[in-house]
Specification:
Radius of gyration: 16 Å
Number of domains: 1
Structural class: alpha/beta
Largest sheet: 5 strands, parallel
Catalytic activity: dCMP + ATP = dCDP + ADP; CMP + ATP = CDP + ADP
GO molecular function, one term: kinase activity
Strand order of the largest sheet: 2-6-1-7-8
Order of helices and strands: EHEHHEEEHHEHEHHEH
Number of helices: 9
Number of strands: 8
CATH topology: Rossmann fold
Family: Belongs to the cytidylate kinase family. Type 1 subfamily.
Protein name: (d)CMP kinase
Enzyme class: transferase
CATH class: Alpha Beta
Amino acid sequence: MTIDGVAASGKSSVSSGVARALGIPYLSSGLLYRAATLFALEDHADLSDQGAVLAALGTHPVRLEPLAEGNRVWQNGRDLTPELHSTRVDHGVSAIAVLPGVRAWVNEQLRQVPPPFVAEGRDMGTNVFPHAGAKFYLTASPRVRARRRAQERPEDVDAIEAALIRRDDLDRVQSAPAADAVVIDTGPLDLDGVIGKVLAGVQRHRAGQ
């Protein structure tokens, strides 16, 4: 199954909860895009230069560890995960994510993982796993998403909201829901409520409804 959605809509938290409930791992494509961004930044590469970014990826082999409770990204013995949600990675990841070569690299990493799993991230249901059985798309207003993110980081809500609106504009092509996806507005729901809606949708799919 796939869970797509706009930035800061709760994809990772929901995917982790659904995966734990189903007893399967989840795959976070977003962490791989963030790893690509981190490597490009560390190599002082131009984030719009696909050749330079791919060269950075070529010298930094990574491994995605798909656990239900939360994915981790490793470079040899280095756990990159704590560094992947920094502000500088936040600001650069949209530029990286639109590069076709980087998208192909991320998709190849994901497709190497044997199912079953919950695949979380942009265009999972439309491009990466188009034949997935159950598909979900999470959305919420920029303000709601900004308030949620501000609880995780000591940043101003207005600044976060402005950054999310810019991110939405950059990600618009990638973040459209699949035609057969169930769209869930997470704004009026807490985390357990969203997880419950997804699990109910999975049950309906399994029942052929």
